[in-house]
Amino acid sequence: MEWPMLETPTGEAEATGQAGTGQAGFWTLQQAQALHGLPFNDLIHGAHAVHRRHFDPNAIQLSRLLSIKTGGCPEDCGYCSQSARYDTGVKATRLMALEEVVAAARRAKAEGATRFCMGAAWRSPKPRDLARVAAMVEAVKALGLETCATLGMLTGEEAGALRAAGLDYYNHNVDTSPGFYGEIISTRTLEDRLATLANAREAGLKLCCGGIVGLGETLDDRLAMLVLLANLDPAPESVPLNLWNEVAGVPVAARAERPDAIAFARLVAVARIMMPQSVLRLSAGRQYMSDEAQALCFFAGANSLFLGETLLTTRNASEERDAALFARLGLTAMPAGEGVDADA
Ligand code: SAM
Ligand code: DTB
Ligand code: SF4
């Protein structure tokens, strides 16, 4: 059998090494299924070949998260510890003070992060809060860090104000497939999310947009989510692939099922082939993965992660473990600003 069986949607032989236009194309679920169904070695080899053409295969982008406003969220996302609708034990806080955020960003920089992501448990920011977050963005940017925020839905004006303050990335996930979405969230639609993503793009922000696996969705849902992401035009610069981080008391807890390491590496590989120029982040759920499982995902094309023992409210892999893993694999930190195709 020849690798690859598929051409990219633009008709370019991206995966064969002959081309790599980087243009977003139109991927179909059938194409994603065909890629996913390849023998494991063919799939991983193909994905790694694509990866090497666009990125330094040994460099990993390092981000640090901070929950600047935790819990008490009015939305009903069925996986989330921060929704006020579920009894998860997470205490709601007010928006953090500027100085505390800057101190955390300084620590993140000292620990090796190049991007600092500020997350707030909001449906969307109120004008007063937006002004305060804009000041945080400005101060974090002044430390020489890339900036990212995830604050819920944004209008075009709000996105523009954040961009003007120095925001580089906006994180807003599609979360799951169009078909499964309604089983997980009812208080905002997928169309709402796409509108926010369009507003962020329009304002000149880079997109960090991905989703979660392990919510009880099918394999086709996982692939349909990747198709949705790959068909954003252009594809998001950063794509977080979250494994659902267990939270007691939320609706998803009753049906969640994490993919095993091989199944997850296959998804990473499909994502790498369909989004050759996007930085793929092993996001939530890394603490469940062995070193070997993470190594396989890096080989399949994952090249970004969150450092630090907590994400927003849940646990992450420990910094000691990550340092040891980097040493074992000879991985280095991706320099800031290199998150886009090195060949472009
Ligand atoms: N409230 C804002 C929003 O949802 O737009 C921003 C913060 S929200 C926590 C950011 C993303 O984190 C969600 O869209 C979801 O994809 C991810 N997330 C939340 N809880 C998670 C969990 N328990 N496991 C994995 N990912 C999770
Ligand atoms: C994303 O896709 N993953 C990060 C970031 N965007 C904000 C969040 C993961 C959150 C995990 C749940 C928690 O810690 O509360
Ligand atoms: Fe609120 Fe975001 Fe959690 Fe949904 S994912 S409940 S919007 S904090």
UniProtKB/TrEMBL annotation:
Belongs to the radical SAM superfamily. Biotin synthase family. Residues 7-18 have a biased composition (Low complexity). Keywords: 2Fe-2S, 4Fe-4S, Biotin biosynthesis, Iron, Iron-sulfur, Metal-binding, S-adenosyl-L-methionine, Transferase. Residues 58-286 form the Radical SAM core domain. [4Fe-4S] cluster binds at residues 73, 77, 80. Transmembrane segments: none annotated. It is an enzyme of class 2 (transferase). HAMAP family: BioB (MF_01694). Catalyzes the conversion of dethiobiotin (DTB) to biotin by the insertion of a sulfur atom into dethiobiotin via a radical-based mechanism. Gene3D superfamilies: Aldolase class I (3.20.20.70). [2Fe-2S] cluster binds at residues 117, 148, 208, 281. It comes from Chelatococcus daeguensis. Pathway: Cofactor biosynthesis; biotin biosynthesis; biotin from 7,8-diaminononanoate: step 2/2. The gene is bioB. Homodimer. This is Biotin synthase. Residues 1-20 are annotated as: Disordered.
